[in-house]
Design brief:
alpha/beta; Rossmann fold; 3 domains; disordered C terminus; binds iron/sulfur cluster; binds FE2/S2 (inorganic) cluster
């Protein structure tokens, strides 16, 4: 431990920590652009300049906090007049060629350049020369557009591909005010399954998502904690959607229940500050056509009639088998076990397999099992054998909860009860079909491959006619209780 003083406050810092790390750990604010806690330290933006006070024998000096190790007795000022003057000078340099684009920039509202400009500078450009122009819309990949005029050359994106995703697929060409971030010509950036993290870590609006481009101002949106269901890693994410007070009433009501973007929610036990691109694309999973109506053999009925029919099937069955979802939450699994666990022989099924072209596994985040709560389900039930024959032999009723089990895999002649959130041709062939809520419409927890439990919260209301599986299991429980008495 080393004792230092930051703005007069006594701070205990670890040996080897930088002033930036010690300041952040003790709640002192120092601005930064190029520094990122998970990347190497290039020290190129100089905005983190602090003043080290002299001690009577030596003069004080200005230095960058992100690359200065703490030293015993060091006295640091983070906001002295000298520091503020130097930061103002740095911002004059950084904004010399930066366009005044905030009004049309997707980063507005969460841009640190905008924030620091108003904190430390706030004055119009000191330059009398016209700004140097660069590419405004450079397609860095089919997912990301780059505005080189907004780029402040912090190199975070370059270091991300070098140090984290390890594709080494971005670099900086040329010198001085002709410098340009560019992707390598071999297409490695377009293939990088973690590429969208550079959008988050770009401190300005230079790197932008092409799907989110000009879709919403961030202050119209709010983030709800969710767990990515894309694989058994179960990354913590924020699902961004329109705030209720900014609900659209006339123009596009669909936008009120739309996922606007997905970003990582930092979780050191699961995903650190990163997610993969599949996690960014959760709208592709959650915004598929929804199953909204209960059916009896394809005939639309109200949910109560379907529940009554399902109860009758359960009561009549001699060997009922349940194929339990590996996408269900721990709460839903517990509700199933409470309500129907004794009545059914239950097995954990695979709801999702990898899709063609998808990365199966790597040593950063992506795991081979594309089912987020296999661990939670497997704590209660055995796995379904690969072809399901042993588990399903002799079954006269099969309850299929979730996706991934076509009718062809079920014993011919067995009655079927299906619960699913999305449209599927098998739904209409089931003896009873009950639509259930999607993960974005309920609270719950998943247990990931390493046993870490992560919670998620509802972002949207359930559509009319759709119930939570947890509630449906309780409604079907009456039969199990009757059977038991
Ligand atoms: S594009 Fe963004 S992250 Fe990359 S160097 Fe420029 S400012 Fe930094
Ligand atoms: S690694 Fe898996 S859980 Fe994490 S974002 Fe990607 S698909 Fe989702
Ligand atoms: S944050 Fe320290 S030099 Fe950029």
């Amino acid at each position: 431990m080393v004792e230092i003083f930051i703005d007069g406050d006594r701070v205990e810092a670890d040996d080897g920590q930088t002033v930036m790390q010690a300041a952040r750990a003790s709640g002192h604010v120092i601005p930064f652009f190029c520094w990122h806690p998970a990347l190497s330290v290039p020290g190129n933006c100089r905005i983190c300049m602090v003043e080290v006070e002299g001690d009577g024998t030596a003069q004080g000096w200005l230095d960058i906090a992100c690359n200065m190790p703490v030293a015993k007795g060091m006295r640091v000022l983070t906001d002295s007049p000298r520091v503020r003057t130097r930061r103002k000078q740095m911002l004059e340099l950084v904004t010399l060629n930066h366009p005044v684009d905030c009004g049309i920039c997707d980063k507005a509202g969460e841009c640190t350049l905008q924030d620091y400009h108003y904190e430390y500078n706030g004055a119009p450009s000191v330059s009398r020369d016209i700004k140097v122009h660069a590419t405004k819309h450079h397609a860095l990949s089919d997912r990301i557009v780059l505005d080189n005029e907004r780029c402040i050359l912090c190199s975070r994106c370059v270091r991300f591909t070098r140090e984290i995703s390890k594709t080494d697929s971005l670099g900086i060409q040329n010198r001085g005010d002709h410098s340009l971030v560019r992707a390598s010509e071999d297409g490695a950036f377009a293939r990088d399954p973690y590429s969208d993290n550079v959008i988050d870590i770009c401190p300005v609006g230079a790197l932008l998502s092409r799907t989110h481009l000009h879709q919403a101002r961030v202050w119209y949106l709010e983030a709800t904690p969710q767990v990515c269901p894309g694989c058994e890693r179960g990354c913590s994410v924020d699902v961004w959607h329109r705030k209720s007070e900014w609900k659209l009433n006339r123009l596009d009501a669909g936008a009120n229940a739309r996922i606007d973007r997905v970003t990582p929610r930092e979780n050191p036990a699961v995903n650190g500050p990163w997610i993969c691109n599949k996690g960014r694309d959760l709208a592709k999973i959650f915004e598929r056509p929804r199953a909204l109506q209960a059916h009896l053999k394809g005939r639309v009925v109200d949910a109560d009639a379907a529940v009554v029919a399902a109860r009758a099937l359960i009561a009549a069955a001699r060997r009922p088998v349940a194929l339990v979802s590996s996408w269900g939450s721990n709460e839903e699994l517990a509700a199933f076990e409470r309500a129907l666990g004794k009545r059914f022989a239950s097995y954990v099924k695979t709801d999702w397999l990898p899709v063609p072209g998808e990365r199966i596994e790597d040593d950063l985040l992506i795991k081979p099992d594309k089912n987020p709560n296999r661990a939670g389900a497997s704590a209660l039930y055995r796995a379904l054998d690969p072809d399901g024959r042993a588990a399903l032999a002799g079954a006269d009723l099969v309850l299929v909860w979730g996706e991934g089990c076509a009718d062809a895999a079920l014993p011919s002649g067995a009655k079927t009860i299906r619960l699913d959130a999305w449209e599927h041709p098998d739904n209409a062939r089931a003896d009873v079909f009950l639509p259930v809520s999607a993960q974005t419409e309920r609270n719950g927890h998943h247990t990931n491959f390493a046993g870490v439990v992560s919670g998620f919260e509802a972002c949207f209301a359930k559509p009319a006619g759709v119930a939570d599986a947890e509630a449906l299991f309780a409604m079907l429980a009456a039969v199990a209780l009757v059977e038991a008495t």
